[in-house]
Amino acid sequence: MYAGASVNSVYRRPVLQLPVTLSQKICIQGFYNPDTDAMVSDTVSVYLRNASSPYEVIDLASAAFDPTGQGTFEFLNAVNGADYYLQLEHRNSLETWSNMPQQFSGSALNYDFTTASSQAFGNNMIQADYSPVKFAIYSADVNQDGVIDLSDGSLIDNDAFNFESGYLPTDVNGDGVIDLADAVFADNNSFNFVSKITP
Fold first, then answer.
1. Rounded CA gap, 56 and 48, in Å?
2. 3-class DSSP assignment, residue 196
3. Three-state secondary-structure class, residue 136
4. Which of 31, 88, 91, 189 has CB 3.0 to 4.6 Å from 148, enough for a Cys bridge?
5. How many CB atoms lie within 10 A of CB 16?
6. 45 lies in the same domain as 111
């Protein structure tokens, strides 16, 4: 399909474009149990962002990760050979970006955030397990403002005081109950001044 947009520009785009597939592995700090080497399954969103400033969003997909941390995402606006940052968002975890732009090849891309902190931009992950070695995105950014601090801890404390339960952002460990076990992640990460790091 051809479309004219201005005096000197003509845009060409295929009418039918097949999706590209991202197979990605992550670990979420609060949802991971090092004793079982398994994670509570949950939904994560992945944004594909342009590799240069202002890093505009090219596409978005959401999918559930299995207990091993594996998830599969399909994108309709991405193409092979173009550079994209991968940006992760989860309901109560810190926004995390890939260490550098990635490319789809043959309509596929595999990326594993769990192998090293250097897989995330700014090495912004925490070691969740030593055997096997596994790195995780930080948990407890309950209000999604990019900083884990007292405001996140307050939201958790309030819900714990009111005996809240269910699928809530304040359920930082994914057990369906808001209690002291969730507050620990906010307290520890707040003490260490954890905040998002982006290009």
1. 9
2. coil
3. strand
4. 189
5. 5
6. yes
Q: Is the bond leading into 169 cis (omega within 30 degrees of zero)?
A: no
* Claim to verify: residue 154 and residue 85 sit in the same structural domain: no
Residues 124 and 163 in one domain: no
| Residue 47 structure tokens | 């944004």
Amino acid at 155: L
pLDDT tens per residue across span 25-68: 999 999 999 999 999 999 999 999 999 999 999 999 999 999 99
Do 173 and 94 fall into the same domain? no
Indicate whether 29 and 117 sit together in one domain: yes
Q: Which range marks the domain in which residue 95 is found?
A: 18-136
Strand partners, 49: 57, 85
Task: Report how far Cα 59 is from the mean position of its chain's Cα atoms.
Answer: 14
Strand partners, 22: 73, 109
Summarised one tens digit per residue, pLDDT across range 143-184 is 999 999 999 999 999 999 999 999 999 999 999 999 999 999
In a domain, 1, yes or no: no
For residue 121, what is the domain's CATH number? 2.60.40
**Can you say how many angstroms the Cα of residue 73 is from the centroid of all Cα atoms in its chain?**
12
